[in-house]
Amino acid sequence: MKLLKPAVTSVLAATLMLPAVASAEILPQEVSVQPMSTDTAMNAQTDAQGSYLINPWTKEHVYYQDAVEDSSFTTSSIVTPEAALDNHVFYDEAALKDLEKLKQESTSASLQSQQDSTDLQYQQMTESKNTLSAQTNDQFAAKALTKAQYRGQFKELSLTFGAFSCPTAGNFLLHSLQDSPSNRSYAAGTTLSNGFSRTPSYTEISIPIANAVKTANAQGKKAVSGSGSHYTSAGNAGLDWYLTLGKYKHNWAAEKMTNGTWTIYINVNDRYDYTHISPIPSSLPAKAIALVSNHAADAQNAGAIVPYISNFYMQQPNYRP
Fold first, then answer.
1. Helix 147-161 vs helix 286-301: angle between axes, to the nearest 10 degrees?
2. What pLDDT score does 212 carry?
3. CB atoms within 10 A of CB 167
4. Which stretch is the leader sequence (predicted)?
5. Residue 261 has pLDDT above 80, yes or no
6. E strands, the chain, in order
7. Is the peptide bond before 321 cis (omega within 30 degrees of 0)?
8. Total structural domains in the chain?
9. With 0-12 CB in 10 A as exposed, 13-18 as middle and 19+ as buried, what is 1?
10. Would you say 272 and 170 are in contact if contact means Cβ atoms under 8 Å apart?
11. 24, 78, 215, 227: which could join 309 in a potential S-S bond, CB 3.0 to 4.6 Å?
12. Distance between CA atoms of residues 320 and 300, nearest Å
């Protein structure tokens, strides 16, 4: 488990940004609706290494991070299935439409050139030093800045993330500091999609999906799909993903194969943007995080930070309910 050193925490408290609610939801067809079972409690277990969930696809233990979170500012890492998945799943014809849509999107994910750019930015951030100066800190005072001034601040901050094991967060912030950032898509099997699939947050959405597939299999269905919304926290995803995604939406579809196993396609999507946080928490580091997030929202209003959509695709083959 990764623990933040006090020196790292003190710097990040002045530089962290929190993405707001995700968008770009892929809505399933409103037919063949049946309520999802609510008796599938998602209980974390504990061993010598800490609290964990069992990933339904790999059967591996997925451990939560040790993190102290302000209860007035963030939500608990341990969730119920109802919080991670909408109350309805879709079968047969409607599910097949969702299935084909996810397949096509995953196949057409324009990844190679994007991944090259991502790798380059990772290298830049990893090699960067902490150059956050007292002058930059002073500029976070509540005053209106120009678009160029905001961009200068946040570019410096994005590079700082790499020095503190948050390269993805820095990469996504850096991408937003242009007038027309492209939307991003990461196909199944890529570094970022694989990375997110190893978080407890992903397992939290996977458990109710697996339960829905079990129900569909028991009912003799050949396809099932659904959607939901969820979130990351420092505890259920680690600091890097927490600062990259925040709240997000997910869509999924599954098909039964001829050998009796199921293949599940999952899409996690998020709109990278910022909104003002109010009221401001009273305790640190939540207070510092909220203040900088509000500063980022001001930068977005000035056109320095430009929202864009990110899609991550995961594929879970050979699942046998």
1. 140
2. 95
3. 21
4. 1-24
5. yes
6. 33-35, 45-47, 50-54, 61-63, 88-91, 184-186, 223-231, 247-256, 262-272, 308-319
7. no
8. 1
9. exposed
10. no
11. 24
12. 46
Is residue 28 situated within a structural domain?
yes
Distance of alpha carbon 9 from the chain centroid: 21
- The answer to whether residue 49 is domain-embedded is no
Residue 196 DSSP code:
H
Name the amino acid, one letter, at 313.
Y
pLDDT at residue 246 in the model: 86
Task: Kindly tell me the sign of the dihedral angle through the C-alpha atoms of 139, 143, 145, 150.
Answer: positive
Place of tokens 């570094």: 191
User: Average model confidence (pLDDT) for the chain?
Assistant: 77
pLDDT in tens, 88-139: 789 999 999 999 999 999 888 855 545 545 554 555 555 444 444 444 444 4
Residue 151 resides in a domain: yes
Which conformational region is residue 245 in: left (phi greater than 0), alpha (psi within -120 to 50 degrees), or beta? alpha
- What is d(CA 61, CA 18) in angstroms, rounded to the nearest whole number? 28
Residues in the chain: 321
Asked whether 314 and 271 are in contact (CB, 8 A), the reply is no
Angle (deg, nearest 10), helices 234-244 and 167-176: 30
The residue segments making up the domain with residue 269 are 6-40+82-319
**CA dist 304 → 154, 205, 298, 307 (Å):** 9, 33, 9, 10
Round to whole Å and give the CA distance between 213 and 187: 22
The CA-atom distances, in angstroms, between 23 and each of 13, 94, 172, 228, 269 are 27, 22, 16, 11, 7
Q: Model confidence over 14-30: pLDDT tens digits?
A: 444 433 333 332 222 22
pLDDT bucket at 293, cuts 50 / 70 / 90 = confident
Pairing of strands 184-186, 308-319: parallel
Categorize the per-residue pLDDT at 239 as very low, low, confident or very high, splitting at 50, 70 and 90: confident
Rounded CA-CA distance 274/292 in Å is: 10
DSSP state of 37: P
What is the pTM (predicted TM-score) of this model? 0.78
Of 83, 75, 86, 69, the closest CA to residue 34 belongs to 86
Residue 314: other Cβ atoms inside 10 A: 25
